Amino acid sequence: MNTLLILPLITPLMVAAVSFLVWRRKAWQKWLSVGGACMSFVWACALFESVRDGEILTMQAGGWAAPFGISLVADTFAAVMVLLTATMGLAVTIYAVRSIDERRAAFGFYPILQILLMGVTGAFLTGDLFNLYVWFEVMLMSSFVLLALGGERAQIEGGIKYVTINLLSSAIFLAAIGFLYSVTGTLNMADLALKIGALPASLTAPLSVLFLVAFGVKAGLFPLFFWLPASYHTPPAVVSAVFAGLLTKVGVYALIRTFTLIFAFTDVDVDNLLLTLAGLTMVTGGLGALAQTDARRVLSFLIIAHIGVAVMGLGLNSTRALAGTIFYLIEDVIVLTNLFLIVGIMGRVCGTFELARMGGMYRTHPMLGALFLVPAWSLSGVPPFSGFFAKLALVQAGLEVEAYTVVALSLVVGILTLVAMMRLWAEAFWKPSPYVVDAAQDKMQTGKMLLVPVCALSLMSIGLGIGAEAVFGVALTAAGQIDNANGYIEAVLGVRR
Amino acid sequence: MIVMLAFVIGGLYAAGLYMMLRRSITKLIIGLSLLSHASNLLIFTTGGLVRARPPIIADGATEIIKPFADPVPQALVLTAIVISFGVTAFALVLLHRTYLTIGTDDLDDLSKTDLAQPERNG
Amino acid sequence: MINAVISIFALAGVAPLIQRFAGRRAGLLVALLPACLTVYFASYAGVMMRGESVTQRFAWAASLGVEVKFYLDGLSLLMTLLICGIGSLVCVYGGGYLRKHEHLGRFYLFLLAFMGAMLGLVLAGNLLVLFVFWELTSITSFLLIGFEHEDEGARAAALQALIITAGGGLLMLAGFVMLGQVAGGNYDVQALLAQGDAIKASSLYVPLLLLIFVGAFTKSAQFPFHFWLPNAMQAPTPISAYLHSATMVKAGVYLLARLAPALGGSVEWTSIMTTTGALTMIVGSVLAFYQTNMKRLLAYSTIAALGTMVMLIGTGSEYAIRAALVFLLAHALYKGALFMIAGIIDHQTGTKDVEVLGGLRKAMPLTATIAVVAGLSLAAIPPMFSFISKEMLFEATLDVDSNAGRFRLILTAVAVLAGTMFVTVAGLVAVRPFFGSLKVTPKVAHDAPLEMWFAPALLAVAGIVFGCMPNTVTDRLIAPAVAAVYPNAAPMELALWHGLNVPLGLSVVSIVCGLVLYRAWDALRTRTKWTQGFSRFGTEGMFAAGGELIECLARWQTAILQNGKLRIYLLVITGTTIGLTAYTMRRGGITFPAANFFRTDVKFYEVGLALLILAASVAAVRSKSRLGAVAALGVVGYGVALVFILFGAPDLALTQFLIETLTVILLVLVLYHLPRLKAITGKRARARDLIVSLLFGALMTTLVLITASVEFDPRVSDFYAAHSLPDAHGRNIVNVILVDFRGLDTLGEITVLAVAAIGVFALLKLRPQAIKQRAKRKRRQLKPLKTTTRGEESPL
Predict the structure, then answer these.
(1) Are B15 and C693 inside 8 Å of each other by CB?
(2) pTM to 2 decimals?
(3) Which residues of C touch A67 (CB under 8 A)?
(4) Residues 88-117, chain B: which have Cβ within 8 Å of A?
(5) What residues does each domain of chain C span?
(6) Which residues in chain B are closer than 8 Å to A229, comparing Cβ atoms?
(7) pLDDT tens column, C352-396
(8) Is the terminal CB of chain B with fewer CB neighbours within 10 Å at N or C?
(9) Rounded to whole angstroms, how far apart are CA atoms B80 and C732?
């Protein structure tokens, strides 16, 4: 039963290891990855099924009882995120099969992608703070390599900022772990939750801020997000897609874990701080998106704007708000991955990502247009797509506690997103192409294989809207577990707080 | 000694950050290395210091004699050292590559991917 | 009802296929379903007359308050009949109008999707479900306005309409959520209507009312949001006839009428709505006068008409509600017909400019006849149905709360102004193109084919028939609708002839004035053309300027924030860290370690070591040569390793020595290829960086001191010490931790190292061709590898 916790980690590792052994056989690596991604997906589904009703699975690595060994923990929230990771992993792997060039494939693109997914999964499942650092590094290292593979000037330039800023954040994270260990003598997150309660807030509050900064950088919060718009649009679409969908969300996940489990003391100050940062993140991201003239850059800034919305739910700090955040994360992962994949196809068709030079696809690629509109509207919070319900939950939660400013900002961000997305649509699809293009040739360039994951993800956006009740139910279960950490602590340590 | 080391750590952080804030790629690398030294030393120090009592159970003994240095921070630092070596090595090659590709070691020249309207004359 | 909505959406999905296979007959085929639905809904009229309602429900997202509840009462019935009835006519008409258009299939798709959304909107018995359909109408409208997508004007108009209506919709959502919270988390419309007094007593009443108003006013093109509607005339004419006159723009009016029992009756409600409605009537009437494009003429008169309805609902008397609903029906009939006529003229002659049209009655006799009948309706000449509605309008304005006598007069005057303008517009659209001498048009005019004239003819005739037998209509449609808005309404009796009274007099006045204005239109318009210069101070200009301002702000803030300078990014991030930590420390109070914590014994060689490390790090910073800096870095690393040795960590020290040596070798190898160090930044920048760096260092020192002074809980390390030998069979506890207790970390660590190795390998090997060449070129240029061009010393 509890092997379910280790399988999603071991599978990509094995795939990567075998891929390294068959280094010269690119086709083998490719199909091994697809197979591995399918298997991870199955494990993740099984894991999700076993915890969706609110059970918490734990596994003590090496058999050493918590808090002495490293605990792997899957509560509903973690399982949802793992499932999302596996789903996106499968989608991007399939997309990569047809879109990644031979040179990248020759330098281990597929195994490194698997390791990236393993790092992300590990970060979601671990119940140990230092282990979280290790998974972060696994994830970062493989993302560095994925970003820099290819070595174009833009990738190098973006890569430097990405690497440097993330290393700074890792250094802060590491320091924060050191401080926390020295005052509690433990690294297990459930154990930390117990110990922190006994310490004075004057000691823990500054430490919590260090975590806020470290994870805020990864999540792309204002004013720490600079690395994101500098780098996310530079690698191939499939890499951007997996970054956009998952990496920032790991930051948000870590923020949620840190501030609901470890620093669960109800310090209103930190909540207000989070709300302020969330508001500023929304505005700067939304406005940033308006100022862009490149399709991928527009999306990069929208990632930031919507991270703000997700963190808003954490700042509001009620079960309903957290459920809204979880729903929002689910939607955001799917939609942003999808948008980057679609924009990737659009770029292939038009030969550019510059909005001014795109166009004419309404006539030549109506299907792609329809596939674009679904995530675009979902991201903007237009009903009946999934984004609307997530936003609705957050608005309800926000108005309940009379946080009018941040609710207003979240609505404004919806409008800004809608403007940015519909402008992109008008430019790329409606506007006649500035060039004389041979439509028949364009159709060939799209490639049916690329549309498979895109279709699947768009259908998911619609499905999550139609099945909003079920999704929100899961989100409420997860939020309930997060909001009342006793269940988590008991599952890991076997004692009550 | 903790007090002394606290200042050493602060000094290392300050020096590392200052180096990272320069415009030169070379200084950036050195800054990053200083920063990782600072982090390692920090974990080691805050775990508590015990002079010359390594956490090793002597041959023949069945248990360790107290006091002994806390083995946990040591293990953490060992992991962190290796990880940061990997990362630094990669960063080093990346920065070297940057220089080859772009032909400058001035970080301020690397602003193309950030600006909304990229210059077209590059 | 649910099946009706679903069937429309399903038909929308297959409409492009129908178009592909049925060709010309597709319009008729597609129109069948809405026509059947018209009959289906009409069959409920009897139920409605008995004052009953029909409800269907199923859960959707119940925990969010979204329960799909469909509710049919008199008001929804009136709207559904308009939607399905006119909808089926528009399908037929659109099939003729766009016969040769390459995207006709998509036209049916969007049109039917809109129809489904609109049906859902008026049937929704839950506020949030209503909102879902509300936004759906906005986005389908967006797709339809931009239908002629290669025209830049159409794209801009589509975006503008979407921003205004969807934006207003989002604010309305906030209003809905507040309303639901006031009502205890209940979003059921009927339940809300029963809680009117509690809602009005709530402190949130005014904000939620304003938010809902914004939603309704944007959708129904009320001043100051009216301008999107004339611009939306970029849509194909069938769309203008359907969405932008008969149905969608009435959604706001519908919503206000629907919520009137819950929200209405307060001072805020009455004053805001009557003022907005009256202003809209004035703006629409005045601006209509200056239009020469038939569709824009009609659009502005639609704005005035919508203003009339909002004003009437705002005044809230039983009579006003009745007048509003009669007007809503009459307006939908004649305005739909007139838009279709305008479309026929445009389609057949190639222009819709009334100035270049004239004398078409000979070439298009049928069209001319229909136009005149519909025009008589717009001008509210008896025996048209609209004449009755006009009479009722005047009566309602004269009837307004008699205490506010002045207010009553103003409203009546505005109503007369609007009535006058309707007459003028009717003359311009329905008379002028057909009479007088024949003018040359881009295309030689012929009468339209059957599928195009059938729909307007039916609507125009309905205007006469309803006018002649008003009570048949009101009993079945209007009275149940009024009952939904104004419970306990008295039975009503309508007639064309009310006797000689003030409303009749006002009707005559407006008709006469309208005719005078029509005659003097050319002269008056040209003579007062200068006033058009003021239009840029209008609300559209303000919105455009606002949009421009936001875009400027966006560009400015992005240029400031995302400035491309890595060091500034790092500075901001560390600055934030320092600032936030200092903030929480200041708020939480900080407990420094006790004095005896500082009085620990220190060996002299330890002090020396500490000083050595510090000195080496300063040297690394200050070094002017690459090798010097690397050497200093090496000293720091070895110094740290010595600390590890002194404090019982031999394994650590060993690793540190090894790694440091490797790093230094690597650095020397790489740095050999990099240029020499130079001080490029200015003094001020250096001072600033130094201060931030020292603050950061000080922060870390402080935190080390504070945390180290807290008593340590050795539970975990004691466990390791106790279990290392017996359970894990290792004497070196650190090693046991690495390979056993925390083996997972080591697994991750090895993975990182492996990936890093691949990355290094790839970066060294994988070079794009272009880069390789550029690098070669650069190297040739820059031999010997020394410096690159740099800007002047900058303060940053």
Answers:
(1) yes
(2) 0.90
(3) 716
(4) 90-91, 94-95, 97-98, 101-102, 107, 110-114, 116-117
(5) 265-355+367-527, 613-674, 742-789
(6) 114
(7) 888 888 888 888 888 889 999 999 888 888 888 888 888 888 888
(8) C
(9) 19
Measured on CA atoms in the order C35, C40, C41, C45, is the torsion positive or negative? Answer: positive
| Optimal mutation site among C560, C577, C583, C755, interface A, most CBs of chain A within 10 A | C755
Lowest mean pLDDT among A238-252, C59-73, C221-235: C59-73
CATH 1.10.287.3510 fits B2-50+69-107, yes or no: yes
A475, C50, C52 from C81: Cα distances, Å: 41, 18, 17
Length, in residues, of chain C: 796
Give A410-475 as a DSSP string. Answer: HHHHHHHHHHHHHHHHIIIIISPPSS---HHHHHHHH-HHHHHHHHHHHHHHHHHHHTHHHHHHHH
Distance from CA of A167 to the nearest CA of B (A): 8
Is the CB of A297 less than 8 angstroms away from the CB of B116? yes
The terminus-to-terminus CA distance of chain A in angstroms comes to 26
Tens of pLDDT, residues C574-611: 999 999 888 888 776 666 776 666 666 777 888 888 88
Q: How far apart are CA A326 and CA A305, in angstroms?
A: 16
C-beta atoms of A157 and B112 within 8 A: yes
Give yes or no for a contact between A311 and A215, defined as CB atoms under 8 angstroms apart.
no
* List of chain C residues whose C-beta atoms are within 8 Å of the C-beta of residue B103: 774-775, 778, 782, 788
Q: Report residue A73: phi and psi, to 5°.
A: -130, 135
Is the CB of B39 less than 8 angstroms away from the CB of A174?
Answer: yes
Is residue A301 within 8 A of residue A339, CB to CB? The reply is no
DSSP code per residue over A208-250 = HHHHHHHHHHHHT-TTS-THHHHHTTSS-HHHHHHIIIIIHHH
Residue with tokens 């509003």: C324
Give B90's contacts in chain C (Cβ within 8 Å): 756, 759-760, 763
In C283-431, DSSP assigns E strands to: none
Among C263, C180, C184, residue whose Cα is nearest residue C216: C263
> Which structure tokens are listed for A196?
């922190």
Task: Check: CB of residue C537 under 8 Å from CB of residue C765.
Answer: no
Q: At what angle do helices C502-519 and C385-399 cross, to 10 degrees?
A: 120
* Residue spans per domain, chain B: 2-50+69-107
Q: Residues 134..153 of A with a Cβ closer than 8 Å to C: which?
A: 134-135, 137-138, 141-142, 144-145, 148-153
| CB of B115 closer than 8 Å to CB of C559 | yes
The secondary structure of A296-322, three-state, reads: HHHHHHHHHHHHHHHHHHHHHCCHHHH
pLDDT > 70 in chain C, percent? 93
